[in-house]
Design brief:
By secondary structure, this protein is mainly alpha-helical. It has one domain: CDP-alcohol phosphotransferase transmembrane (TM) domain (Four Helix Bundle (Hemerythrin (Met), subunit A)). Helix content is about 70%, strand content about 5%. The chain is built from 8 helices and 4 strands; from the N terminus they run αβαααααβαββα. It has a two-stranded parallel ribbon with strand order 1-2. The protein is globular, with a radius of gyration of 20 Å. The two termini are about 35 Å apart.
Length: about 230
């Protein structure tokens, strides 16, 4: 079999997974993104938007480091979070509107960008002094666990879950923005009379929630696959 024939066969067999998004903002966000994609200048490409999303996330991580010296850098972090949403969310919509989908390329690149971006963001947070480094590591590990499960489920079930329950990437960004605004007032929170770093509290809750969700979804999908592929 020639290389060209093999390539053609792989492309023919590849099936795009069903996209499922039940997040709170999903419906509104979909309409907003379609409106923006239809009005985007012709020179704007999906690859440029993907690069914007990654650059903004890396920038947010770098700016978190700068908050050690000036907490006003948190305002620039918020700008980066918004730009990350724009690039990360609009790139796929733009490709679909323009009928320029590259399913394998897009899926692979988008999610490797998400992984590198998450490492940069959590690395910046770990160096920021806004939380203890082990909280940032716990969030990163939990994120990678949940992401790995999502990618494996996409392959085995042909179903790509963009959200877990009512929470998706946009909801997480909104919470992060609100957290940054709260940090401008004070980096601390008082819980049951105990004073602690606000992002330590939020990060611990986030890491525990992502880890629990990864376990629950893994059990559910394992049971589903077991039923679909019973022993002979």
């Amino acid at each position: 079999m020639s290389v060209q024939a093999a390539t053609t066969e792989v492309q023919t067999e590849f099936a795009t997974a069903q996209r499922v998004n039940r997040a709170l903002t999903a419906s509104v966000e979909k309409h907003v993104l379609r409106w923006m994609a239809k009005r985007a200048p012709g020179w704007v490409t999906s690859d440029q938007l993907t690069a914007l999303g990654l650059s903004a996330q890396v920038g947010a991580g770098a700016l978190y480091v700068l908050t050690r010296y000036d907490r006003r850098a948190l305002l620039l972090v918020i700008v980066c979070i918004v730009l990350n949403w724009l690039g990360d969310s609009l790139d796929g919509t733009l490709a679909r509107i323009r009928q320029q989908q590259r399913p394998r390329y897009g899926f692979y690149v988008d999610h490797m960008v998400d992984i590198f971006g998450a490492v940069a963001l959590m690395g910046g947070l770990a160096c920021s002094g806004l939380l203890h480094w082990w909280t940032a590591v716990a969030m990163l590990v939990a994120f990678l666990l949940l992401s790995s499960e999502s990618y494996l489920a996409t392959y085995t079930l042909s179903r790509f879950e963009l959200s877990q329950g009512f929470f998706g990437p946009t909801e997480i960004r909104i919470l992060l923005i609100l957290g940054n605004l709260a940090l401008l007032r004070s980096p601390y929170a008082t819980i049951f009379g105990r004073r602690m770093l606000l992002f330590d509290l939020g990060g611990t809750i986030a890491a525990a929630g992502m880890f629990a969700m990864a376990v629950i979804v893994t059990v559910r999908h394992t049971a589903q696959l077991y039923r679909q592929e019973p022993l002979p």
